[in-house]
Every structure is written in C-alpha cells, then in structure tokens.
Amino acid sequence: MVDGSSAVLTVAQMVAAEQAVFDGGTSVDALMLRAGQGAGEMIWRIGGHTPTLILCGPGNNGGDGYVIAEFLREKGVPVSVAALTDPRTPAARHARLQFRGEVMALADAVPHAQLVDCLFGSGLTRPLDAELWQRFSWLVRQAQRSFAVDLPSGADADRAVWLNAPLRFDHVLALGAWKYAHMLEPVASDCGALSLIDIEVGSGDDHVHRLQKPVIAPPSATSHKYRRGLVAILVGAMPGAALLAARAAQGSGAGYVKLIGAGEAPAALPADLVWERADDADAVAGRLEDDRIGVVLIGPGLGRDAGGSALLGAAVATPRPLVVDADALHLLQAHREALAARRSPLILTPHHGEAMALAANAGHELNGINKVEDAQRLAAAWAAHLLYKGADSVIAAPDGATVIADRRCSWLSVAGTGDVLAGCLAARLANHGRAFAAMTEAVWLHDRAARIAGAVFSALQLASALPMALESCLDRSPARRG
Q: How large a percentage of the chain has pLDDT more than 90?
C-alpha cells in the first residue's frame, strides 16, 4: 500500500497499463493475486476479525474478491462470499477455485458487520438492474463498515457519475492508480476514505494527476520586496473584494502588494497596503508600466459595466503576468484580440457559472466526459492556464497538463473565499513566475488555510490563516538552509 502515486487514469489507460505488465511476463492470475492480497491486507488492518460479507461479480473485480476472501479466511476472519453469477473470466475462475470456503448466491446474502463490494469495479458503464441494485444497496447500507474494491459498483469511472442512485461507502481501495470517479463529484464525496493499493502497474505518459502538497522555497538571504514579487490589484466597483485579495496576497508570500483604484484611498485602508490613485483606464495603464510589477490581478469586485471592461482592457494590454478572476471573466470576450497578442502568463479562475460563460464565448458548451475534459478544452480555447474552481477544483494548462484537487474543505462555501484564492494565486505567481506551479500551490494553501481556520470562518479569517498554511510546506532541507 502506497500513497505516493498521483496519476489519475481513465479505464482505457488503466487497461493499457495492465496490458504492459502482462506483456512484460506477469500473468493475469499473478496480478489478480497481487491486487487481492494488497486490498485484503488493508481490510485486515482496518477491520481485524470483523465478520465480513464479500460480494463477487462475474469479472476480474469478482476475482479480486475471491482472493480477498481467502486472504481474510487464512487470517481467521469469519468470511461469507455471495456471488452474482459464476465467474466468467479465466483468472476469476482460478481465484474462485483457490477460495476454500463456501459461496452463496447474492440473493441469499444477509447483512454483515462489514461488507466488501467486488461486483463490478471500474468497468461499469450502464446502470444495474433495479432488483440487483435494491438488494446490493440494502446490503451496503446495513453494514457497519463498507469497502469498495477499485470503485463502488454503480459508479461510472470516467464520467464520475452515479449510474444508479448515490451510495455511500466508508472506504474505497483504488487498484494501481486513481480513477476520475475517486476525485470528481458527485461520486468522490461518496467514496469515504481513499487508499491506493500498489499493484506495480505504471501510469504511462498520463497528463492528469492528483494535487500533492507543494514544497515552497523560503526567501533567499538576498531577497527584497520586489524580488519576492509585487502584486498590483485593480480596484473596481466593490473595493472590499480587492482588499480581501490583497490581504491574501500578503499572507501568501508576496513582497509588496498595492491597490490601484479611482479616487483617494479609503479611510479604512490598512497601513501596510499601498494605494495608487488612477481615475480612469488610461491612468491605470500608466500605473501598470512599472517594470517592477510581477503580477496584475483583476476581477474581485470589478463590476461588469463599461468601466470594468475598460480596466480589463488596460490589464490585458500590459505585458505583465495576469490573473483574471470573477467579474472580469464575463468581460473577456470583448478583449479576445488583445488576449491573443499576449506573451506573458494568463490565468483564468472560473467557478461553474463563469466557466459556462467562457465556454459559450469560445463557441462550445461544458458537455465533456467530465470536469477535467471541460477544463482542458477551456484552457486550450483561451490559450490560458485555467483553474476551474469548486468542491473538486481542476487545474489545466494549455498543453493538457492537469491536476485535480479533490475533497476541498466544505467550509470554503462562504462569500469572499474566491477573492482570497485569487490573491493567493497572484502572490505565488509573482514569487516565481511559473503559472502552473502557482495554481497548484494556491489551491493547496487555500484549502489548508481553511482547515487551520476551523469551522465557520469569514473570508478575512481565511486570509489570516494563509501564513500558517504556507509555513507548513516550506522547504527546510539542509542544502537550502546552508
């Protein structure tokens, strides 16, 4: 059992990865034994001698179930196996012969304290029939602890949707690599705890990975405020949102944060934030000529009127790296020609509604296989790095490289947290200039700060927790300290 691999594979990619193992001389039987014993070890560690019901389907997922059953039986666990039908693959038939216990029909199974689902795994693409689903889901719900091997039966692995009704499992044991349904909603929330079982299968040249904790370099001994990154935030109709983003940028490593807006600085402006007056778009463009600016952020509290569009035009025209968030995303279409001429990094940060608007303006709809495909298509269409936000956030680069941030803290569902994320992202980009790394760092820090802040926090409290989140992933290696 390992947690190190971050690859997320489609069913077809997983089949190809397994075939490469078979081509290398490993038999299907040997791989099934490896998978079943690995899963059995995890179930044994968690459940001990808990009486266990294992549901076996006709394919290789069912074969894994027979291997698990024999593994647990040898440990002294009271095991009952219920089969939907006789095994239909050679490896599953062989695994059934190796199990030295009795097998009953699934229709005769009764609830046990612990259940292991090995009916269909990740290969299912159509709903279970009503009678089977009723029986299966009843047995799962009656168990005090439920496991699914590879994927809960009834979930589509690639589309990450339930083919029947949603069904909650306590623990899902992914075999060899993560699948999209482990990471993406609505299935991910019903998978409970996740464990990855290493079956020694490679992931190939896959572009999609699960978000990992970043390692962030602290400032060097020769750093100064501009080298750490100057973030310029354009202020629109609602200055409070821009102020939240500024606070987040300060807490995420930026060396210098300034707000550029019309009129005099607000009376409540904190002393450690700089206000630069620019009363119209031309004045803003002049302010953005400062070569020391590392990143321009526009969108939080911008508004969608002509004034907001004019400010966006000034931001798009600057050669500085640009983060476009919130209201500004709805105004991008009018600046498409100027966007095409840009050479510095461009990051777009839509939530679902904003992603729909971006898709419509690009001439298509969000109707891909799953959220990952939608994010990749948007990134390619806008020639931008894209952060598709939500309970499952997807980070996509124009070249197809993609990271999924699953299981985001649900307490983030409060006004202003998107502004905080935008400020955090701008600071990370200003710090080192690498757009993809900045997005992965910001998403991880945002979620970590939410967990530090605890329950029922405000957006400002979230921003205040960012320094602790960043501190938790600083590179403290001896080589760097030296």
A: 93
Query: Sign of torsion, CA 467 468 474 477?
Result: positive
Indicate where the chain has its CATH 3.40.50.10260 domain(s). 8-205
User: Helices 417-432 and 435-453 meet at what angle, rounded to 10?
Assistant: 140
Q: Which of 263, 315, 311, 306 is nearest to 288 (CA)?
A: 315
Angle between helices 90-98 and 28-47 (to 10 degrees): 50
Mean pLDDT, residues 98-127:
96
**pTM across the whole model:** 0.93
Structure confidence at residue 482 (pLDDT):
38
How confident is the prediction for the chain on average, in pLDDT? 95
Express each pLDDT in 35-93 by its tens digit. Answer: 999 999 999 999 999 999 999 999 999 999 999 999 999 999 999 999 999 999 999 99
- For 332-363, the pLDDT digits (tens) are 999 999 999 999 999 999 999 999 999 999 99
- Under 8 Å between Cβ of 291 and 261: no
Single-letter residue type at 230 = L
The CA distance from 49 to 70, in Å, is 14
Overall fold of domain 8-205:
Rossmann fold (3.40.50)
And the tokens for 135?
């029986």
Q: How far is CA 284 from CA 276, 280, 302, 311, 316, in A?
A: 9, 6, 14, 7, 12
Judge whether 71 and 64 are in contact, CB under 8 Å: no
Task: Look up residue 364 and give its DSSP letter.
Answer: -
Helix and strand counts by DSSP (H, E) for the chain: 18, 21
49-66 exposure pattern, b = at least 16 Cβ within 10 A, e = fewer? ebebbbbbbbbbbbbbbb
Instruction: State which fold the 225-481 domain adopts.
Output: UDP-N-acetylmuramoyl-L-alanine:D-glutamate ligase (3.40.1190)
